[in-house]
Batch of 4 targets.
Target 1
Amino acid sequence: MFTPLPAYPCTSSSTPYKGEWYLHTLPKDDAYHSLLTLGFGVPVDLTSTVVGLTLQTDDFPRD
């Protein structure tokens, strides 16, 4: 069963070199319906979600 998070951050094999990562949001019907590309270092406020934190992205690995 699909239990979506309010947001799902991820990187791909090419994005660390570009300093970018993806935030998938708007979960519905077993899929995420929004994709946002952000740069490393941009904090994501998830305090109003079940996660209840701010995701710091400045330490995401670049290699």
Target 2
Amino acid sequence: MMTNKTRRSFTDDFKGEAVSLLASSGRPLIQVAAGLGIQPSMLRNWRGPADGVARPSSGSTWGHCTKVNFAYARAESDQSGS
């Protein structure tokens, strides 16, 4: 027997207020998330766009590109250091 769970959705206003609370409270992210009744990972994800830093989605190819860029930079560093 399977139970259907309804996925909760949150407004942009709620997300913004949650991120503001995190920034201004000085409390740990886990504590703020618990107080709001949300998972810490949700608040962590919301914090990304609010601080102006683009975070790739899990389906993004950025992770691969970043690995390639690090490998390239390491190879250049190794060559210049010889």
Target 3
Amino acid sequence: MSAVGTGVTGAMDARPPRTRRPVVHHPREHSIYQVRPLPGAAGHPIVEGLTPFLVTSEQYYLHMDPAAEVLAVTDYVADPDHPELARTVMPVTWTRSWGAGRVFVTAIGHNLANLEIPQVHSMITKGMSWATRSPHTPNSA
């Protein structure tokens, strides 16, 4: 069993707690922001060899599952609606085990241009391979 997700969408809603989406807020406009792998995750096959990179996309302020293994983060950009959130470190890519299954999630993927960034392509390809336990080893970015 595995699950792969890209492009987190939605907001907290009235569904049962296990099915609620983690997005709490995102700015009205797309932002340019840096994504960087966490130093402690450098050996994980999804982000191994990954260098920091810029994306232009929606940036999400999230409620996170404490069982998630965060692999890459960003510093939340200034938002006039919520200036207190500026510079908060937010997860962008993470994994989680679910029973015998593996879950890979990245919040990047809102537009096609971001999927053409070599580091994003690498991270998503490696994430799908990791989640599905594929013997295929994708090229690094």
Target 4
Amino acid sequence: MALLLSRIEFGVWSEVVGHEQPLHLVIGAHRRGMSEPVLRVKTAIASKTTPRCRNSDAGLRYHRALWMRDNAVRRCWVERITRGGCLCGGVSYELHGDLRPVVACHCNQCRKASGHYVAATQVEQSRATIKGDTLRWFKSSEHAERGFCSVCGGNLFWRRFDSPFISVWAGTIDGRTGLKMESQLYPESAGDYYDLPAVRVIPQSELD
């Protein structure tokens, strides 16, 4: 007799178990035995013997233990949230989803605004939540503006007027970023007091 297999996937790992019950009964049993719903269930038909879960209490406890394992990692897989802010805490932000690798910019405006070259990541503006009454925007060119805190002077953001994206200074992110610098802009404008990062040079037009 062919067994109905259900693969319960958690993004970073998965377990396969065999069931002799109809799929809707299997899913219902797992839901009753877990504190959270199954993320995804894929089905297939197999004719070979597989590890069995007979809807027993032991089986439900087993799947509950698997579900709870690495819970923090699985939540990050569902949606990554990155938090940060300025020096005084007057401006804070949350970025939802994956972030672009860091890009260094050596242009005169970035060096004047930051005191050094800028290292920034990027995200869609619709996935950025910014809070703080001290946030101010300075129109630094005909095409873009820069966001900073009016109390501590911390530089945080850069955005083009016609772009759905916003650049975020990587140094303002709280804790570890998980990001790497992969490219740089305008090395010809770099200061003479530092060496260029060992990453490729790209034109501004290559970025969104």
